[in-house]
Design goal:
Blueprint: E1 6-8, E2 27-30, E3 34-36, E4 40-47, E5 52-55, E6 59-66, E7 69-82, E8 87-99, E9 104-111, E10 126-130, H1 137-141, E11 146-150
Parallel strand pairs: 2-4, 3-5, 4-6, 5-7, 6-7, 7-8, 8-9
Antiparallel strand pairs: 1-2, 10-11
Length: about 150
């Protein structure tokens, strides 16, 4: 995958653990459409008009400014700003969210009160076993009841 955005400072894949050291993080400007597979940690992210940017992993930034179309999960220590004609899809956790007239936010938004936290939620894993405990192997193979247990 080619990098189709301008990155000022360290690369877009900077560790989310550095999100607390905002001044050390880069400003990212997406001027063309892109699919971003790595975790993004930045001071400021701007998605320009006529761009569609899909973030496959969580995005950490102080501020996110959208003029185009952004899809992903965003954690903003500052503001998510959606300008007229822009669209943001996904989950947003920010200190403030500003949706200007003509902009669209599709998803879930949460206003942060304390320190920013990850939106990632661990999905429980499931295991299964056959509830048919018959000694007859043919009956066990037909196992009509499957039980799922969280662990």
């Amino acid at each position: 995958m080619s990098r189709l955005h301008e990155a000022h400072g360290t690369p877009a894949g900077a560790s989310a653990a550095n999100a607390g050291r905002v001044s050390a993080l880069p400003d990212l400007s997406y001027r063309t459409s892109d699919i971003v597979a790595e975790v993004v940690a930045a001071r400021r992210i701007e998605i320009h008009r006529n761009c569609e940017v899909y973030f496959l992993r969580e995005v950490h930034a102080r501020d996110v400014i959208v003029h185009g179309h952004a899809v992903g999960n965003f954690v903003c220590d500052g503001c998510l700003l959606l300008n007229p004609g822009s669209v943001a899809e996904g989950t947003v956790a920010a200190r403030s969210v500003m949706v200007r007239p003509g902009a669209v936010l599709n998803g879930e938004a949460r206003i942060l009160q304390g320190a920013p936290e990850s939106l990632a939620q661990e999905s429980p894993s499931l295991t299964w076993r056959c509830a048919n405990r018959s000694p007859n192997a043919k009956l066990r193979a037909k196992c009509e009841q499957v039980m799922f247990r969280m662990h």
